[in-house]
Amino acid sequence: MIEQIKTFPGNVIAIEVIDGFTGTDQKMIEKLFQEKLKRGFDRINMLVKLDEMKISNSSIKAFMEDSIWAIRNYSYLGNFAIVAHSKIVKALVPIDRFFFERIQKGCEEKYFDVSQLDAAFQFIADEQVVSV
Questions:
Q1: Residue 131 is assigned to a structural domain of this protein
Q2: Is the predicted pLDDT of residue 115 greater than 90, yes or no?
Q3: What residues make up the domain containing 89?
Q4: Residue-level pLDDT at 69
Q5: Is residue 132 part of a domain?
Q6: Other C-beta atoms within 10 Å of 76: how many?
Q7: Are the CB atoms for 124 and 4 separated by under 8 Å?
Q8: What b-and-e string marks burial along 100-110, b requiring 16 or more CB atoms within 10 Å of the CB?
Q9: Residue 132 banded pLDDT, cuts 50, 70, 90
């Protein structure tokens, strides 16, 4: 299940994945993203908090659909903060960043420990566009 952690008037989406990630969650992320694009924002900054997510309660199909959707919409993604308490996730972020850095110039992807949630919010909100 996902829920918005905090709402922003500009081009920022902040969500938390709680327990598991499902197809409904994937559709909700698409909807939130599309709402921001319809408001005229060129890039959407995102924060995704994963520390309470359980892989065993998540849908592989939803992850695959989300990954495909993310690749198709990567050009609209601005700064991306991943907040977790996981050495595996922390190790995967630089690999992901390296893979996509050629596609998205001027945007960053960063890992933050859950203890750094305020810094993660600052990272995605620094370049927030509040009007279109």
A1: no
A2: yes
A3: 2-125
A4: 76
A5: no
A6: 16
A7: no
A8: beeebeebebb
A9: very low
Q: What's the pTM value of the predicted model, to 2 decimals?
A: 0.81
DSSP secondary structure of the chain: -EEEEEE-SSSEEEEEEEE---HHHHHHHHHHHHHHHHTT-S-EEEEEEEEEE-GGGS-HHHHHHHHHHHHHTGGGEEEEEEEES-HHHHHHHHHHHHHHTTTSTT--EEEEEGGGHHHHHHHHHTT-----
- Between residues 17 and 40, which one has the greater pLDDT? 40
**Does 50 map to a domain?**
yes
- Provide the number of structural domains found in the chain: 1
The DSSP-derived string for 108-125 is: -EEEEEGGGHHHHHHHHH
The amino acid that residue 30 corresponds to is: E
Task: Write the CATH number for 31.
Answer: 3.30.750
Domain annotation covers residue 130: no
Whether 32 has a pLDDT exceeding 60, the answer reads yes
Q: What pLDDT, on the 0 to 100 scale, is given for residue 101?
A: 62
CA 104 to chain centre: 15
